[in-house]
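Please produce the structure of this protein holding adenosine-5'-triphosphate.
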Amino acid sequence: MSERGSIIYLEGVTVDYDGFKALNSLNFIVNFNELRVVIGPNGAGKTTLLDVICGKVKPAAGRVIFGKDTDLIGKREDDIVKLGIGRKFQAPSIYANLTVWENLDLSLKRPSKGVFHTLLSQSTREEQARIHEALATISLEGFSRTRAGSLSHGQKQWLEIGMVILQDPSLLLVDEPVAGMTDKETEQTGILLQSLAARHAIIVIEHDMEFVRQIARIVTVLHEGTVICEGTVEKVQGDARVREIYLGRQKVHA
Ligand SMILES: Nc1ncnc2c1ncn2[C@@H]1O[C@H](COP(=O)(O)OP(=O)(O)OP(=O)(O)O)[C@@H](O)[C@H]1O
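Below is the modeled complex.
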């Protein structure tokens, strides 16, 4: 896949729920190695946007192109994962009774033979090296033998991010990564996402504007299923329409 141009391209995408347009002729482009933050008030269509990209929701109209020319419309969710799109949901979906290492081992991109077969088989040196690298990336080097269920909330989120990146996605979708985190964990998550952006394109949905300011280069503002503003944090915060939409709901400025 070319490392130039767009990694994901949505054109005229409409998602219709019995006449209600959760996405309304949406145009949205993210380039390779971009870290894009999507904000917008409740119900703006942010989650629906990610649902369309990962194949969970089928649009009534529009095109969704991954990489140079792979049309995602009509593809199954697991096929989209295999193409290189990984999603980190808001609630961590880790195996609480397995160790951090075992969780990472299970998520390595390899033909799935089931949990028990994978745990009983020896990982190769290369696989072990990749797990060590992931442990360092997510700052859990000292926790490889710790039961995942006993990690802190923030550490669980990082573990799941580690599990998604071990599948080596070209595009990583992240839904509200810092909800419920301490300030320190939030800051560390920002550093983690920025470091990941060197190797993966990332789309982050976020409500926490302080966090958005920490990580964002370009912010897309969604409202009623369409993009109403896009640009730097400063541009978005100074935009009259954005201010009006957020007025009385939540502050765009901390
Ligand atoms: N399965 C569904 N059936 C009907 N309406 C839906 C469905 N899923 C989402 N919607 C509606 O579509 C709109 C967009 O929802 P979406 O979850 O994408 O918004 P959001 O921007 O992620 O909001 P939030 O910040 O609250 O998570 C909302 O009004 C929601 O109620």
